[in-house]
Q: What sequence folds into this?
């Protein structure tokens, strides 16, 4: 092997070790696709409740306006929880598979940093939206979800594959457009969390995982 | 023209040391076990390379505690960072000049 090849290989090795030690690179494209499918199914199930074809309150019980427990007694709340849990579990599963294949720990330093950084905007955002729901501004929930999720992705992009940053920008743009088209939140929500996740997942899968 | 090989640091003339330096360049401080896991080498091997780098003032060792267990972390020194950047620049030059 000549000097030139040796240098090139050394540089590749340096780059690889820098990335491997600072970024969680096992995020699978299939995780994105699954999360997107869950979101689309969730939006489809929620559709008749959101647009008033079905009563979204379980048992049709009446509640006082300032009753916090009201939200727990709606179909929409439980559909949202089920959607989130199934999206998270299926996304986790494929990333876990990929991390095993890459020989990387699923719960290493890079994964921790990624989780912490994605969580900060998400937790702040959920508290904010929870208070907004309490004041009855339901129309801003979908754009709020999209915007805070986008911020979470951008914040996390330093600690994982860089493409997630663009997914973050797209979510924020969709959320902001939705701010001026209140009432169509579910559609924007389905495009952002459903369609865009699937696009992103397919792109990442083709770029990094297809043999 | 200066031969770029002159700028290649003999101290970084090993895959393990290149790996250690790369990791420490982008992470503030890294402990022994994380280095071992990332580089996929044995304790003894890693320890000897770390010692060589430490003796040349390329990296610093910090001993601390997590609860009662000792936690040894490694940090790159200012001069270590400089040396490694020169080494990378020399590697890049090697590729360009021989093209």
A:
């Amino acid at each position: 092997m000549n000097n030139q090849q040796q240098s090139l290989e050394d540089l590749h090795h340096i780059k690889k070790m820098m990335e491997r030690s600072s970024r969680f690179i096992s995020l699978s494209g299939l995780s994105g696709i699954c999360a997107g499918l869950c979101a689309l199914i969730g939006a489809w199930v929620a559709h008749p409740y959101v647009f008033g074809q079905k009563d979204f309150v379980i048992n049709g019980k009446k509640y006082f306006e300032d009753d916090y427990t009201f939200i727990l007694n709606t179909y929409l709340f439980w559909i949202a929880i089920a959607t989130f849990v199934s999206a998270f579990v299926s996304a986790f599963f494929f990333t876990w598979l990929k991390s095993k294949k890459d020989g990387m720990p699923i719960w290493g330093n890079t994964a921790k940093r990624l989780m912490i950084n994605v969580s900060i905007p998400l937790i702040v955002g959920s508290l904010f939206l929870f208070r907004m729901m309490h004041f009855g501004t339901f129309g801003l929930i979908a754009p709020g979800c999209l915007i805070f999720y986008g911020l979470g992705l951008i914040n996390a992009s330093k600690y994982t594959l860089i493409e997630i940053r663009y997914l973050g920008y797209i979510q924020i743009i969709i959320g902001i457009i939705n701010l001026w088209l209140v009432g169509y939140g579910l559609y924007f929500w389905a495009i952002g969390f459903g369609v865009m996740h699937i696009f992103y997942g397919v792109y990442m899968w083709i770029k990094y995982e297809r043999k | 023209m200066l031969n770029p090989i002159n700028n290649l640091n003999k101290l970084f003339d090993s895959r393990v040391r290149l790996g250690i330096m790369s990791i420490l360049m982008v992470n503030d401080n890294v402990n022994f076990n994380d280095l071992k896991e990332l580089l996929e080498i044995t304790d003894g091997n890693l320890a000897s390379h770390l010692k060589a780098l430490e003796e040349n003032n390329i990296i610093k060792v910090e001993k601390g505690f997590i609860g009662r267990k000792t936690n040894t972390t490694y940090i790159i020194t200012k001069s270590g960072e400089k040396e490694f950047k020169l080494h990378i620049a020399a590697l890049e030059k090697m590729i360009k000049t021989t093209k």
